[in-house]
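Predict the holo structure. Ligand: zinc ion.
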Amino acid sequence: MIVGVMTLHSFAEGIGVGVSFGGGEQFGAFISLAIAVHNIPEGLAISLVLVPRGVKVWKAGLWSIFSSLPQPLVAVPAFLFVQAFQPFLPVGLGLAAGAMIWMLTSELIPDALEDAKKEHVATIVTVAIAGMIAFQALVG
Ligand SMILES: [Zn+2]
């Protein structure tokens, strides 16, 4: 189940990579690097679920890699689509950003507040935002 969910959500990330290159090579490289960095804990999460259930470490590693294969496969057609519809790029990027903000505020933060103290959730959200800004300043 986790491999399936992670593989499916990689399609959306591949679209994000392809669309980001429509905003220029530097922006595309920045988004690609950000997605690549976030693939590390995602792959680790998959392996940490599979290995205790008896899957060999090398097979769990391959499943972790497999779950991200849709990203490069979908990025190319997404980039070509954006090239064909360049005037709509700002709208697409705005929708993507809005979707991520919506997911954060309607799903992730409420779920976190069910299991953790609000001070801890606020601290983690603040550190995560600061980390994103630092990553953008260093790489972008
Ligand atoms: Zn992801």
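The chain has a mean pLDDT of 88. The first helix runs from residue 2 to 22.
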